[in-house]
Structures are given as C-alpha cells and as structure tokens.
Amino acid sequence: IKSSEILVLTYTVKAAENFKDRLVDIIGEKKDGLQSHNYHAFSKMISMEFYHELGYTKKPELITDSDIYYLLSKHIDTINLSSITYKRNPVEAMKSMKFFFDRLRDELIDHSDLVNKLRSYKNDIDDNDIDAVERYNQLKDSIKIYPLFQKWKQDNNQLDFGDMILNVWNLINTNFNVLQKLRRRYKHIVIDEFQDNNYALSKIITKIAYPNNSITVVGDDDQSIYSFRGANVYNIYDFKN
C-alpha cells in the first residue's frame, strides 16, 4: 500500500497528529504523502481545492460563530417572522436557528423534505394549543431562513464549519469527475474516535471508499458524548452494513 493512498481521519488536530506518528512508526520510510486530518480540516481542504466547482468565485473565507450571528442579525429584521418568541428575542432566535442549521447539515436533511414535514406537522396541530403553535412557528421561521442563510454566505464567498462537510457531500454527489479523483487519491481510509463521527461524514466516507471499501475504524459507543455537536452513535451500529 502506498502511504500517499492512506487517509487518516479523527476528531481533533492533536489526535490526527498522534495517529500519523503512530502510523509512521508502522510503515517506516514509506511515510511520504500520508494524510492525517481531523474531520473539519479534511472537509475544508476539499472545499478549498474545489471551490470553483462548489460555486464560489474565489476561495471561501471560514467564518466564526460571531460572524454567523452578525450575518443573521443584518438580515433578520428584513424577514417577517411568525414566532412571537423570535420577534421578542432576536438573539435567542439566532442561537436557536444556528443550532438547527448545524443539525440539518450534520444529518444531510434536504430543505424540500423539511418543507413537506412542516406541512404534515401543521395538520397535526391543535390551533388552540398555544405552545404547539409557537413551536410550529419557530420551525417555520427556521426552515424559511435556512436557504437564505446558505445563499448569504455563498454570495460573500463564506463558509462555516457546517458547510465544510456539506460541501464535500454535495460535491461528490453532483460532480462525478471530482468523486473519481478522490476515490483514486484515497484508497485506504482509517478513522479514529468513530463514535464522534456524524452521519454526513460517514456517508461521505462510504461513497469515497467505494468500491474497494477499505475502511478501518476505531470507536467505542460508550464514549459517544458529542451528540450535541452532531455525533451519531448509529454510525457504529451501521458500520457492518
């Protein structure tokens, strides 16, 4: 196996460096080209390499949570919100929306599916149930703003952490040439701390690894403590499939 065809992925930068050192001890002098990254660094690298194919006019800028809240605050007043809570407390609205947007991308949930689910949800609501109506309106507002939020960033050549993984997924599903290039590049994939993986990254790795399916993972479902960041222990249970 050529070391340049090995891709190592793990949760943190420090873990990625440690894993690379351990692999170098095993493979010795054949270490040239070995790639070891944390999940987001890998996704960012792909986004930057294929930024033109992703629709950016130049390499996108990675924005922070503060930038995200600024972007939302700049536009939120121009949108007619349905939620009383969101109208009264825009700061809370933006925090809630950001959390919601992150989960959508971690789970690869399509916007059109959300719209359909929202319609179904409305049919089950008792209009006299004030709390249920308010929850519905918060969902409605978040679902309405999500595609606008994505477009605002795209127009500014910006991306956040959630976009990096979503970008890779969109890229390999719409551009077969890029997918083939990545498949030729990464023939053997090793993933550490697999329980911290989210659904989107697992789907990406599955698609890139095909048809050789040379994937090695290390994980412990008892240590899955990052569900609030999108980690999904289901990945371990589904790995054999």
Explain what the structure shows.
It is built from 11 helices and 6 strands. With 241 residues, the protein is α/β, with parallel strands linked by helices. The strands form 2 sheets. A 4-stranded parallel beta sheet has the order 2-1-5-6. The protein is elongated, with a radius of gyration of 20 Å. The model has no long low-confidence stretch (mean pLDDT 88).
Question: What structural keywords apply?
Answer:
alpha/beta; two-stranded parallel ribbon; 11 helices; 8% strand
- Please count the helical segments: 11
Bulk shape: elongated
SSE topology string: EHEHEHHHHHEHHEHEH
Range of strand content: 5-15%
**Secondary-structure class:** alpha/beta
The helical percent reads 55-70%
Strand line-up of the largest beta sheet: 2-1-5-6
